[in-house]
Amino acid sequence: MSGKKIQILDSTLRDGAQGEGISYSVQDKIHVCQALDELGVDFIEAGNPGSNPKDMEFFQEMKKIPLSHSKLCAFGSTRRKDIKPSEDANLQSLVSAGTEWAVIFGKSWLFHVTEILHTSEEENLAMIKDSCEFLRQNKMRVIYDAEHFFTGYKDNPEYALKTLKAAKDGGAEVLNLCETKGGAMPNELQEAVERVVKEFGGTCAIGIHTHNDSGLAVANSLIAVTAGATHVQGVLLGFGERTGNANLSTIIPDLQLKMGYECLPGDNIKSLTSICKRVAEFTNLPLNPGMPYVGANAFAHKAGMHIDAVLKNPSAYEHVEPESVGNARVFLMSEVAGRSMVIKKIQKFMPSITKDDPIVKTIMARMKELEFEGYQFEGADGSFELLVRKIMGKYQPFFKLRYYQTNGVNPRPEKGVNATAQIKVEVDNQIEVTAGEGDGPVNALDIALRKALSRFYPAVEQIRLTDYKVRVLDGKAATASKVRVLIESSDGMDSWSTVGVSSDVMEASWMALVDSFEYKLIKDIEKHFNKLV
Question: What CA–CA distance (Å, rounded) separates 451 from 473?
């Protein structure tokens, strides 16, 4: 790769962790670090060791775990006003973290200096310089985050630039410009970055850190690079406080595939989608299917004319090859999908099939019958594949259900438990009866089924339900209405969706749940067979 190098700093474990509902355990943080290191980001901003015992424990654990590419960074603030750096507990904790690099933030906006810190302009500059010098004296390399830089620059550009000079004079190697409120317009940001690059770009790397409050985090990051920034910060999946941070899973391929910059080493960008899925799994968040490049729908096609064109030449409707980021082309099954689409799906199991084969007409007819009943296969790739297998005679059930039953439990006997499920299944003439407790009847049934099958099929322990949706199909029928249940599942590497329809929500959930388990087991068998071949 011959493009100019752009340093990438990922803040999933620090800025991203400030998003609503996100709480990493120490082990989660270690797993995320290892995934980001495998991806090949240059820096991992992994937390503030001075803010809580968990982050300090994490940094101590990471001393035992070598990273192959990424540099771990401890995050903190400049010293408090009117004390020496050596007396500041936050700076001492940064040194204790034992990382080669530290990221420290200081104030660029005079409003924050006088109204939030209640200190003088001169003392704020001294706080920045002293803190950088202290870390350098303790053998740490420094990335300086200029908090509220663009707001401060708009208010008083000369003072904002003085704060950067203080950091540079203190030994900071990266001057990172933070668009903290997420409100800067592209033209404002570009002008400011160009001036900073002109004044400091010869001695320091200039960085950009944007938020998405105006929907411009990715765009502003790219504009900063074209203005001369060579260091980009963000969160791999874009989550974080308020509306989130700059989304690195979009920025990295934009820069590398479209703008000619080098962000990740070698062919690592081809693992982008799988790494994003792993990080989403550790974060306990579903990966947004509409996310550019790495989402399940990023290369999904539904309309028959679109599908026909893409089958002839993918560039007709795709801006990059899905394989370039480790994703895959998806053809969504629905009543608007053409026959060429169905043939493409069937050829996965019967490569020699042609459009004139009677089985194609049978599958399309059955699919349309089921969609009339309320099924929707465009978001249920797993169930559609199982439907095709059943019609083609390439399906063998993995178990036989004798019965299941669920019950609500009130009051809750413990946190996370308000339902129980009992299930009886038969596998190869062996009977298994198990029960499960869960947060709701579907969760309890999922747990009970997993217990029942794990003795026969250990791989089911890898399955996790990552999303569950219920749609009432005919509200006029009130409580007798049909419902469609869509379940998204993952084994940590792949994800798939299944669907069930019934006037009984538990029966619809059961249908989708069974499809999810059987899809996983079939795929594992095929992977094993392909390895043997």
Answer: 32
> Could you give the C-alpha distances from 467 to 12, 159, 214, 289, 485, in angstroms and in order?
22, 49, 28, 11, 10
Q: pLDDT tens across 6-63, in order?
A: 999 999 999 999 998 898 888 889 999 999 999 999 999 998 887 788 888 999 999 9
Q: pLDDT digit string (tens) for 361-375?
A: 888 888 888 888 888
By the 10 Å C-beta count (0-12 exposed, 13-18 middle, 19+ buried), 430 is classed as exposed
DSSP state of 90: H
Residue 417 phi/psi, 5-degree rounding, is: -130, 115
CB 405 within 8 A of CB 507: no
Q: How crowded is the C-beta side of 459, counted as CA atoms within 13 Å?
A: 17
Evaluate if residue 532 carries a pLDDT over 60. no
- Return the number of other C-beta atoms located less than 10 Å from residue 516's C-beta: 28
C-alpha distances out from residue 37 to 269, 279, 360, 391, Å: 12, 12, 46, 45
Per the prediction, the chain carries an average pLDDT of: 89
Q: What pLDDT, on the 0 to 100 scale, is given for residue 211?
A: 96
Give the residue from 203, 177, 211 showing the smallest Cα distance to 191.
177
Which two three-digit tokens encode residue 3? 């493009």
Is the preceding peptide bond at 411 cis, omega within 30 degrees of 0? yes
- Gap between the Cα atoms of 269 and 327, Å rounded: 11
Q: What one-character-per-residue DSSP string does 41-61 give?
A: -SEEE---TTT-HHHHHHHHH
218: phi then psi, degrees, rounded to nearest 5? -65, -50
Beta bridge partners of 434: 423
Calpha distance 119→13 (Å, rounded):
31
- Complete edge-to-edge strand list for the sheet that includes strand 495-502: 464-472, 483-490, 495-502
Q: Is 487 exposed, middle or buried (0-12, 13-18, 19+ CB in 10 A)?
A: buried
* HEC per residue, 376-399: CCCCCHHHHHHHHHHHHCCCCCCC
Calculate what percentage of the chain has a pLDDT beyond 90: 62
Cα–Cα dist 70/78, whole Å = 24
